[in-house]
TrEMBL record:
Gene3D superfamilies: 2-methylcitrate dehydratase PrpD. Residues 283-456 form the MmgE/PrpD C-terminal domain. Pfam families: MmgE_PrpD_C, MmgE_PrpD_N. Belongs to the PrpD family. Residues 13-259 form the MmgE/PrpD N-terminal domain. This is MmgE/PrpD family protein. InterPro entries: MmgE/PrpD_sf, MmgE/PrpD_sf_1, MmgE/PrpD_sf_2, MmgE_PrpD, MmgE_PrpD_C, MmgE_PrpD_N.
Length: 480
């Protein structure tokens, strides 16, 4: 049997791409550098805000109990821990509020795994800001391109999701491995091996989106941990298959049944970057709910009051109904704030009754509000249906059409066909910074919030990640 040349494989081309960019290689495009700095800030703010969740406390307790070589710091802990454990903890924190960014049409959350993995290894290796920026950039790009391979342009379906798989965690493991391997200086062959190892560690199912459970909060942590651990194994001589993606028993066969778009992985690699187009989340809820939130906020601004509502029809793409609208009785009566984040009926009620942050904020998604009688009453009047107009746009956007029948017989309709936070309706720098301040300011004093924001802006020119991470640490006051 003749071995496939490494550079001829999809993984080999991604590995070559990963080691091409950085301080000693090709410069990153300026929009990519700027985007990475914004995503680091976004991830850190979400992670800080998530430290008070019971699931976060449990994970931080486990990480502290495991101990190990003191390579990297963790928000909410006093001691340093191994880089893989730090990556796990920060990945869990970054994904736990469902406030992390989303790439379309891959429909995955790339930064919540890649950024934690890169920051952890950057501490271990004493990487410069330019080095960690480049590692995050290539890790994000690889993550979303592997995700895009599962998008079926003919039908608009996401093959990962159709099979119940969470592309965020599976593709995040590969992107994290590439970022970690780059920072460990493994070279193209080593990065390829790291991704090949991580492919055997990639996992995640999304049933929790539908019927409950908090395991989804672990997914980005597991992906970050897997990526770092895979790179460390590659550093020690463990090898992976060069055909990890397209091989007969590779990633795409295992997870996509062999149906994948190779062009989405490699076409324009290095010339057309996906990173700047990753959507920021303005609201701390499943991204499928956001256009409906915007529609409800618009109707509210035009004078609609909850008491005026007789019934509401939230029309969304067919593929999203099962996540935010099924089972309807569960979505109309979430028991926790976390379940409410995946409920179309709840997010419509919250948009008509609440309002914080950039329109809806973390304070709108509490266990108490999920069970609030007024919200339950309003939720009972909201149904979620599939809409052909939305299907024609999905998954390049997550559109919604909101139709409200009022108690006096009027029919109000508000269509939102492009998501706020994406390229068509981008958040401003001030809005991204405002989201960070709202999140981090829940735990940290204002001077430290300001210091982190400044360090994120100047990360590409920093000597290390110390200025970024020092103000976050428990010894400086973050309570456990």
């Amino acid at each position: 049997m003749t071995a496939t040349p490494v550079t001829a494989t999809l993984g080999g081309q991604l590995a070559d791409f990963a080691v091409t960019y950085g301080p000693t290689g090709e410069p990153l495009p300026e929009p990519v550098v700027r985007s990475v700095a914004q995503r680091v800030l976004d991830v850190l703010g979400i992670a800080v805000a998530a430290t008070t969740l019971p699931t976060s406390v449990a994970v931080l307790d486990l990480v502290a109990e495991r101990g190990g070589r003191p390579d990297a710091r963790v928000i909410g802990l006093r001691q340093r821990v191994p880089a893989s454990e730090a990556a796990f903890a920060h990945g869990v924190l970054a994904h736990s509020l469902d406030y992390d960014d989303t790439h379309l049409p891959s429909v995955l959350h790339p930064s919540a795994s890649v950024v934690p993995a890169a920051l952890a290894v950057a501490e271990q290796t004493r990487a410069t800001g330019a080095e960690v920026t480049a590692a995050i950039a290539v890790g994000l790009e690889i993550c979303v391109r592997v995700g895009m391979a599962g998008y079926d342009a003919a039908t608009g379906a996401n093959r990962y999701f159709e099979r119940g798989q969470h592309a965020t965690s599976m593709c995040g493991a590969l992107g994290s491995a590439a970022a970690a391997g780059k920072l460990l200086g493994l070279g193209a062959d080593g990065v390829l091996h790291a991704m090949g190892i991580a492919a055997s560690m990639a996992s995640g199912i999304i049933e929790g989106n539908r019927t409950g459970g908090t395991v989804k909060r672990m997914h980005c942590g597991w992906a970050a941990h897997a990526g770092v651990y895979a790179a460390q194994l590659a550093q020690r001589g463990i090898t992976g298959p060069a055909t990890l993606l397209e091989g007969r028993f590779g990633f795409f066969q295992a997870f996509l049944g062999g149906e994948f778009d190779a062009g989405a992985v490699i076409d324009g690699l290095g010339q057309r970057w996906e990173v700047p187009g990753i959507f920021f989340k303005p609201y701390p809820a499943n991204h499928f709910t956001h256009a409906g939130i915007d529609a409800a906020l618009a109707l509210r601004a035009a004078g609609l009051r909850p008491a005026d509502v007789a019934s509401v029809e939230l029309a969304v793409p067919t593929a999203t109904v099962r996540t935010i609208g099924e089972p309807l009785d569960v979505k109309q009566a979430p028991e926790t704030g976390y379940q409410a984040q995946f409920s179309g009926p709840y997010t419509i009620a919250a948009a008509l009754l609440g309002g914080g942050g950039l329109g809806l904020g973390l304070d709108d998604f509490t266990d108490e509000l999920a069970r609030d009688p007024a919200r339950r009453d309003l939720m009972s009047r909201v149904t979620v249906v599939a809409d052909p107009r939305c299907d024609a746009i999905f998954p390049h956007q997550f559109p919604a059409v909101l139709r409200v029948r009022t108690t006096d017989g009027r029919l109000l309709e508000e269509a939102v066909l492009a998501n706020r936070g994406g390229s068509q309706r981008p958040l401003t720098d001030d809005e991204v910074a405002g989201k960070f301040r709202d999140n981090a300011g829940r735990v940290l004093p204002p001077e430290r919030v300001t210091a982190i924001a400044q360090a994120a802006r100047t990360l590409p020119d920093a000597a290390s990640v110390d200025d970024l991470l020092d103000p976050l640490m428990s010894e400086n006051g973050i309570p456990l």
